[in-house]
From TrEMBL:
It comes from Humitalea rosea. This is Serine/threonine protein phosphatase 1. Gene3D superfamilies: 3.60.21.10. Transmembrane segments: none annotated. GO terms for biological process: RNA decapping.
Length: 235
C-alpha cells in the first residue's frame, strides 16, 4: 500500500480503517473487508474499523449490507465502530410513518432499500414496519454519532465550525455540507467524514472526505490511518 503524509495522527501501534458511504453496496463492502483483513494479517496492529454511516438507500442491496454488519465482527481482530448517517434516520422515520422522513426516504433512494427487503413500495409504512427485521431496527437505532481517536474525529457529514465537539448538533453531524466543507479553520481535530460525494478521496489540513459515490459507479473508499501517514484501499 502506498502511504502519504496524513493531516492527523493515530497512537503508536494502532491503525484505523475508515470506510465512507456504503449505500447498499454489500458485495463491494465484503470485498473491502477482505482487503482489510489481508492488510491486517500482513501488518498486525491494534485495529479499529470505522464505518462512517449511510448503509442503506440508493444502491442495490441495503438489506445485505445490514445483514453483514448486524452479524458482527466483519473483520476479525478489529474493534468495529459503525456510525449513524442521515439515511439511517430517514429509514427509521419512514418505518414509523413520519411524513417528512417518508417523503425524503422515497425521494433519496429508499425504494432500493424497500426492494432489497422484498417490500411492496405501495404497501406503506405500517406494512414495512411490521416486516422489517427487529435485529436490523435495533442495530440502526443504536448507531453512535461520533468517534474520536488520536488527532481524528469521525462522524458522518462533518462538524459546525466554531462549535465545541461535545456540543455539536446531530443534524450538523449527519447533514452539514458547505459551511463545513469550505471551512479552512483548525478544528483542533482532523474530521474524517462521508456524506458529500467527490470523485476521489479528499485530503485537506482539517478533514478527510471518504464518500466516493460507490452506489453510482465510484469506488467504495477506505482510509488506512496510522502514525502520521495515510493509505487507501478500494472495494
Ligand atoms: Mn450518503
Amino acid at each position: 500500500m502506498k502511504l502519504q503524509p496524513a493531516p492527523g495522527w493515530v497512537p503508536a501501534g494502532e491503525r484505523v480503517y475508515a470506510i465512507g458511504d456504503i449505500h447498499g453496496c454489500a458485495e463491494r463492502l465484503r470485498t473491502l473487508h477482505g482487503l482489510i483483513a489481508a492488510d491486517l494479517a500482513a501488518r498486525p496492529a491494534k485495529a479499529t474499523l470505522i464505518h462512517l454511516g449511510d448503509y442503506v438507500d440508493k444502491g442495490p442491496d441495503p438489506a445485505g449490507v445490514l445483514a453483514h454488519l448486524v452479524a458482527g465482527d466483519p473483520v476479525p481482530g478489529c474493534l468495529t465502530v459503525s456510525l449513524a448517517g442521515n439515511h439511517e434516520a430517514l429509514l427509521l422515520g419512514a418505518l414509523v410513518g413520519e411524513p417528512l422522513a417518508l417523503a425524503d426516504f422515497l425521494a433519496w433512494g429508499g425504494r432500493e432499500t424497500l426492494a432489497s427487503y422484498g417490500f411492496d413500495p405501495e404497501a406503506g409504512p405500517a406494512a414495512w414496519d411490521a416486516a422489517f427485521p427487529d435485529a436490523h431496527r435495533r442495530w440502526l437505532e443504536q448507531r453512535p454519532m461520533t468517534y474520536r481517536l488520536g488527532g481524528y474525529f469521525f462522524t458522518h457529514a462533518g462538524i459546525r465550525p466554531g462549535v465545541p465537539l461535545d456540543r455539536q448538533d446531530a443534524r450538523d453531524l449527519t447533514g452539514i455540507r458547505q459551511s463545513f466543507l469550505a471551512s479552512e479553520a483548525d478544528h483542533g481535530v482532523v474530521v474524517v467524514h462521508g456524506h458529500t460525494a467527490a470523485l476521489s478521496v479528499t485530503v485537506r489540513a482539517n478533514r478527510i472526505g471518504l464518500d466516493t459515490a460507490a452506489w453510482s459507479g465510484g469506488p467504495l473508499s477506505c482510509a488506512v490511518l496510522e502514525g502520521e501517514v495515510l493509505g487507501l484501499l478500494e472495494g
